[in-house]
Amino acid sequence: EPEPAPAPAPEQDEDEAGGALATQLLRLEQEQNQLLRELPPLGDPVTHIYRPLDYAWEPHSRFVRRYCRSPKRVLFLGMNPGPFGMAQTGVPFGEVWHVREWLQISGEVQRPHPEHPKRLVLGLSCGRTEVS
Q1: Where are the domains of the chain?
Q2: Which pTM was predicted?
Q3: CATH number of 12-125
């Protein structure tokens, strides 16, 4: 099974890329994502692993560049990406309608490989709502 291509590097222009903090965060995410890719396969009963930072990098990086431009006092206690949240958008806690309409995030979302036939990734055009 071919490894997915690594996500593109964040732009170097700090104004366009959302500032130095966003650029640094995106680089750290890419480094952590690479380390996760190097873990051994989980095996049965796990048959599918979705990696939204690979296939939904474009909207994810737009979110980071727009909303992570300055230090904030934030504590993430947990994250349930869900099949109709971050799995569709690449945005943490990213229910599709809110990402697209309220946060005004756009971008191409590709299909994960392999894709579970009951958990299709439709990206920002997904009509389902994440209820968690």
Answers
A1: 12-125
A2: 0.81
A3: 3.40.470.10
C-alpha 100/C-alpha 107 separation (Å) is: 9
CA max distance for the chain: 46
58 in Cβ contact with 107 (< 8 Å): yes
From residue 12, give the alpha-carbon distance in Å to each of 16, 27, 33, 53, 68.
8, 11, 20, 19, 16
Residue that the structure tokens 């996500």 belong to: 7
For residue 123, the 8-state DSSP code is G
Helix (H) / strand (E) element for 89: namely helix 87-89
DSSP string, 4-66: PPPPPPPPS-HHHHTHHHHHHHHHHHHHHHHHHHTSPP--TT------HHHHTHHHHHHHHHH
- pLDDT per residue as tens digits for the range 13-31: 444 545 899 999 999 999 9
Question: Is residue 75 classed exposed, middle or buried when 0-12, 13-18 and 19+ CB atoms within 10 A define those classes?
Answer: exposed
